[in-house]
Amino acid sequence: MRVVEIEEKDIRKLREEALKAFPVEACALLFGKRGNGKFLVKLVRITRNKLGSSARFEVDAQEFYNALKKAEGEGLELLGFFHSHHAKPEPSQIDLQGMRLWEGYVWLIFSTLDYSMKAYLMSESKVEEVEVRIKNGFED
Ligand SMILES: [Zn+2]
């Protein structure tokens, strides 16, 4: 099973954003390093849900571009996306379409219903669950 490692402070940030944005779905970009089936999140960038919807999300293209450029300048790559659901933290049909476009990227979903969080990834057109490992600060 692949693993996404994320610091507790970033989890807190995402959770706060999800509760603040509710009933609209919150969204964010996850940046960091990847290797050997492991995604190490080093930077979380909250972005506006352009759709203002409680059932789907879309990151504003300009915000996406700016965040990507800045992260690349810091030597970080895009690892995936975060968004919230007022339902179980499982990919919706629309999410699955998005995941197909972004194969190999992590989709981290937080439920504002029961506060659980799960991560998924599309690989060779199949959905895989990714283990979320919360770290209390990274060593390096
Ligand atoms: Zn969704």
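^ zinc ion complex. DSSP finds three helices and seven strands in the chain. The chain has a mean pLDDT of 95.
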